[in-house]
Amino acid sequence: QVQFVETGGGLVQPGGSLRLSCAASGLNLLNYAVGWFRQAPGKEREPVSCVFGRDATAFNSESVKDRFTASRDNANNFVHLQMNNLKSGDTAVYYCAAAFSRSEGTGLRLCNHASEFESEFAFWGQGTQVTVSS
Length: 134
Prior knowledge:
- Strands 2, 4, 5, 6, 9, 10 and 11 form a seven-stranded mixed sheet that branches. Strands 1-3-8-7 form a four-stranded antiparallel sheet, with no helix packed on it.
- A hairpin with a 6-residue loop joins strand 4 (32-39) and strand 5 (46-52).
- It has one helix and eleven strands, in the order βββββββββαββ.
- By secondary structure, the chain is mainly beta.
- It starts with a strand and ends with a strand.
């Protein structure tokens, strides 16, 4: 049974940092593109960061560029999202999700266009709340 569990969310002041973690069981993350998505109240879900491939290449959306980045812990089958310089607009429920990636090219497509190919992310965690407020 495939399971994803996100942890690390919470309340943080603007300018602060959080590190989200996504523990995967039932599959090997090396074979998947793993994306972090978020959904704020009243807004559509959007991708923020994604990691894929043997070298754990990471993509970050323009809205979080230079502030967020995803990484993968191969030994423990985890993916992390490091979030720095948080802003009130980052308040949302954050989800990790995985899409099977049979090649580097597939991983590149999935991560670079995660919004367009969101339906291919078949496995999702339950989400963790991040609230940025003073």
